Known about the structure:
The structure holds two protein chains of two kinds.
Chain A: H1 15-40
Chain B: H1 3-23, H2 30-35, H3 42-53, H4 56-69, H5 79-98, H6 103-110, H7 113-146, H8 150-197, H9 205-214, H10 233-250, H11 252-258, H12 264-298, H13 307-314, H14 319-349, H15 352-383, H16 392-403, H17 408-443, H18 449-473, H19 480-504, H20 510-529, H21 536-558
Helix pairs in contact in B: 1-8, 1-17, 3-8, 3-11, 3-12, 3-17, 4-12, 4-16, 4-17, 5-10, 5-12, 6-7, 7-8, 7-16, 7-17, 7-18, 7-19, 8-12, 8-17, 8-18, 9-12, 10-11, 10-19, 10-21, 11-17, 14-15, 17-18, 19-20, 19-21, 20-21
Amino acid sequence: MTDTSSDLPPFVRTWPQLYAIVIGALVAEIFLFYGLMVWFS
Amino acid sequence: MSGLDWGVLLVTLLAVIIYGVIRSRGSRSMDDYLLAGQSLPWYHVGLSVMATQASAVTFLSAPGQGFTDGMRFVQFYFGLPLAMVVLSVTFVPIFHRLKVFTAYEFLENRFDTRVRTLTAGLFLLQRGLSTGLSIYAPAIVLSTLLGWNIYITNLIMGSIVLIYTVLGGTKAISHTHLQQMAVVTLGMALAGYLTVRMLPDNVGFVDALHVAGKAGRMNLIDLQFDPNSRYNIWSGLIGGFFLQLSYFGTDQSQVGRYLTGNSIGQSRLGLLMNGLLKVPMQFLIVLVGVLVFVFYQFNPSPLFFNQQETERLEQSPYAREYQLAQIKHQNLSAQRQRAVMDMQVALQADDEAAQEAAATMLRETDESLKAVKADVVGLIRKNNPVADTNDVNYIFLRFVLDYLPHGLIGLIIAVIFVASMGSIAAAYNSLASTTVVDVYRQLMKGESDAHYVQVSRWATIGWGIFCVIVALFANQFGSLIEAVNILGSLFYGVILGVFVVAFYVKSIGGRATFWAAVVAEGLVILSWYLNLTAFLWLNVIGCLAVVGIAWVLQKLFAR
């Protein structure tokens, strides 16, 4: 059982890049939710 | 339920069970039975992790929370993506490299047998009880709404899953999780779509969200820091992070899922997939509840969604008071329909003053309706002090039964069953593996692999019986999704604290950690008993207390 870079999806080169995408998606969702809340209130 | 509904329900359940049994062949070694031979790709791992967390409670309670409390429940999941990243960096490589069957095996390597056994014991207690709740939650709702006997429903919920869990172990569980997620996604997507379709002709999806927003249900983000508020961005990010980290990092029902990945990378990808999809998924599930709320703004709604309790009230000395409350409710419902129609006209005309007037009327009517409902809840309680006065878990299914077309009703009931089966199967498997690997194998060393697999099968059956018994006695937990999370929060923080010390504070030994965990567990239970803070913060308190007390004890013991 080895950890190889071949496990990474093609759109990233390193694991930290993938972590950044996950955290970035959360931040984007929070902003989106805030926007939805303001728009619909 | 019509014949079509029964057909859809039975075919779906049979398909899952037969598929699980077929997939169960060939699990003869411990590695196969408990870890599926560590052979699964990332999407298997990711979907299995998601299916394990999404129990039937998720699909009953979350839309109910959206209906009564709005979208703010989504914030509860904000800590999850962060926890997935920390797990991918720290926990996954360590568990994989040590080739452990359970998370608690690692604790013996790091500390001693005592810490391993204590932590495994806390897990078994917490998971055994909460699995009982996971069986009871959908069983009670289905029994009430469909008139099924609660004991039979509990037995069906808790026992059919045993067939493929006992036979096939982790491999069967992970494969059935894929099917289960497909059924759940299809069912919820159709329910959400049809709810919007059933709104009046001139009300579209965006209009529905405007109405929800004016009625205070689009409260997605609460920036205020209030330790006693259950759902705000801070409790979600900080408390939720600790809860999810301990759930996914130290609860064997989840560790057992991602250890099935065929490499560290595949396990990581599965967890990160969960990190990306979980918040949008919960958003959509709670949104279905908000859409149901909007639907009931345009249509008459039940005064109380648990009809069994209102029927009892009709036969009681409080029947007259209940009738008066019903008349008030009907008048207020009609008033609410007028207000929401005015709102709709104002929104289309872009008339802000009229929108504000309608919104004020809507909020005032909503408050009056809540007051009438509170009076009826008081009557229900007076009539029967042990009655179930929380109808949150009944809202979504009541709506499904009253308004969705036949066939889809069967599919939604199937969603409740298969979601339940997915999380219960993972729980049974984790309880059995922890019992055998962390307790039995310590006492009966040197037996063959086949012997331990056989004992694992018996342990699965034993835990299945225990959980069904808990389900038979479970009662009076309010919103069940909260009850499950509160129960988890009582233990997860302490278990996480033990793992944090193990991973990050190398200078602290087993003796200090053991006693710190015992004292911290007492503190957490005391904090909960005295109602000192909202439950999500118990995870933070438990974890920090273990680390802090262990550090102090280590200094004292070193002298």
